[in-house]
Design brief:
CATH class of chain B: Alpha Beta
Largest sheet of chain A: 5 strands, parallel
Distance between the termini of chain A: 11 Å
CATH superfamily of chain A: Response regulator
Radius of gyration of chain B: 17 Å
Shape of chain A: globular
CATH topology of chain B: Chemotaxis protein chec
Order of helices and strands of chain A: EHEHEHEHEH
Order of helices and strands of chain B: HEEEHHEEHEEH
Structural class of chain A: alpha/beta
Helix content of chain B: 40-55%
CATH superfamily of chain B: CheC-like
Number of domains of chain A: 1
Oligomer: heterodimer
Strand content of chain A: 15-25%
CATH architecture of chain A: 3-Layer(aba) Sandwich
Number of strands of chain B: 7
Number of domains of chain B: 1
Distance between the termini of chain B: 27 Å
Radius of gyration of chain A: 13 Å
CATH topology of chain A: Rossmann fold
Number of strands of chain A: 5
Largest interface: A-B, 18 and 23 residues
CATH architecture of chain B: 3-Layer(aba) Sandwich
CATH class of chain A: Alpha Beta
Strand order of the largest sheet of chain A: 2-1-3-4-5
Number of helices of chain A: 5
Number of helices of chain B: 5
Helix content of chain A: 40-55%
C-alpha cells in the first residue's frame, strides 16, 4: 500500500501564495512534507537533492516560466505529478498543461482549487 | 499613513496578478490570440511624491480610462497607456484592417471597453478574494499629457495616497506598458490594510 506521507513541492514567486497553498494542503493532508521554491530554476535545482511526489507550479515567475520548468522537471523525473496552479488561465496555457500530461488549476487558492489539485494528484497513483 | 509590510504588498501583487489573468483571458477571447499581461509590481506612495518616473511617463500623450469604485473602500482608478500604442491594441481588439485615423473614431468607446475589462478584472479579483463587493461607475476616457496627469494626481487633496501597478500588455506582436493607478483617501487605505490583515490572518 502507498504510504500516506507524500512530498509536495510548491513553486510560486508569491510568498502569500505559497503560504496559502501550504495551509490549505496541510489542513487536508497534515502528514505531507512540504517544500517551497520561489522560481523555476530553484525548483529544478531542488529536486535533484529531494525528489517530491507532487508539485504545484505557478506560470508567471521571474526567470523561466512555470510551464518550461515543469517540462524540464518531467523530462528528468517523469514520476513527479505536477499541477499548474496559475492566474494565467488562457487556452494556450491550458493546452500546454494538457501536453505536459497535467491540468491547469485556476487561482485564487481556495478550498475548491486545492480539491482539484488533490484530485489530480490522487488520480495519478 | 498605514504602513504596508512586504507581505501586504506581496498579497496585493498576487490579487492583481489574478485580476490580470482574468483580463488576459477576456482579451484573448476578443482577439483570438494569446495575450500576455503581467503585474510585476505594486507601490503605494504619497501623491505629493509622484513624478513622471514613478509612472514611466515620457513626453507623449496618454490615454487615461477613469472609473470610480465604491465599497468597503472607495477608489478612483485610472488606467494609463501611451496613446499610439493603445490605439494599436484597440485595432487588434477590433480585428480589422482599419487605419489609425479610422480607429481614432472608435478610440473613446474601444478604450473605455479595454479599461473596463482590465479595471473590473483587477477589482473583481480583489472583491472575490477579500469577500466584499465593489460597485463601479461607468468608465470615462480622456487623452492628456504627462504634465496634465501628474498635476491632477498631485492636486487631489481628498485622496492623498496612490497605489500604482505597472502593467505590461502584449497582444500578438504589439507590446505596450501601462500603469494602473488607484487614488485612495486615508480612510480607504486604512480599510484596505485592515482587509489585507484579515486575509493574511486567515492563513494559518
Amino acid at each position: 500500500m502507498d504510504s500516506p506521507i507524500k512530498k509536495l513541492l510548491i513553486v510560486d514567486d508569491s510568498k502569500v501564495s505559497r503560504m496559502l497553498i501550504r495551509s490549505h494542503i496541510l489542513a487536508r493532508r497534515p502528514e505531507w512534507i512540504i517544500s517551497e521554491a520561489a522560481c523555476g530554476e530553484e525548483a529544478i535545482a531542488l529536486i535533484d537533492n529531494d525528489l517530491p511526489d507532487y508539485c504545484t507550479m505557478d506560470i508567471n515567475m521571474p526567470g523561466i516560466s512555470g510551464t518550461d520548468a515543469a517540462e524540464r522537471m518531467l523530462s528528468k523525473y517523469p514520476s513527479i505529478k505536477i499541477v499548474i496552479f496559475s492566474a494565467n488561465i488562457q487556452e494556450t496555457h491550458q493546452e500546454r498543461a494538457r501536453l505536459l500530461g497535467t491540468i491547469l488549476v485556476a487561482k485564487p487558492v481556495t478550498e475548491k482549487s486545492i480539491t482539484l489539485a488533490l484530485n489530480c494528484f490522487s488520480d495519478s497513483k | 499613513m498605514s504602513s504596508l509590510s512586504e507581505l501586504h504588498l506581496d498579497a496585493l501583487a498576487e490579487v492583481f496578478s489574478i485580476g490580470a489573468g482574468r483580463a488576459a483571458l477576456s482579451l484573448s477571447e476578443i482577439v483570438g490570440d494569446e495575450v500576455r499581461i503581467s503585474v510585476p509590481s505594486v507601490q503605494i506612495i504619497n501623491s505629493e511624491d509622484i513624478n513622471s518616473a514613478t509612472l514611466s511617463l515620457n513626453n507623449g500623450r496618454f490615454g487615461a480610462v477613469n472609473q470610480h469604485f465604491r465599497g468597503p473602500f472607495n477608489a478612483e482608478a485610472v488606467l494609463l497607456f501611451t496613446e499610439d500604442q493603445a490605439l494599436k491594441i484597440v485595432g487588434d481588439m477590433m480585428g480589422s484592417q482599419m487605419s489609425i485615423d479610422e480607429l481614432a473614431e472608435f478610440e473613446h468607446e474601444a478604450m473605455c471597453e479595454l479599461g473596463n475589462i482590465i479595471l473590473n478584472a483587477c477589482l473583481s479579483a480583489m472583491a472575490d478574494i477579500f469577500s466584499f463587493t465593489l460597485e463601479s461607475s461607468l468608465p470615462d476616457y480622456a487623452v492628456a499629457s504627462a504634465d496634465e496627469i501628474l498635476h491632477r494626481l498631485k492636486e487631489n487633496s481628498t485622496q492623498p495616497y496612490i497605489m500604482v501597478l505597472h502593467i505590461d500588455l502584449t497582444i500578438e506582436k504589439r507590446h505596450t506598458a501601462g500603469n494602473l493607478v488607484f487614488l485612495l483617501s486615508s480612510a480607504s487605505l486604512d480599510n484596505l490594510v485592515s482587509h489585507l490583515d484579515q486575509f493574511l490572518g486567515n492563513i494559518t
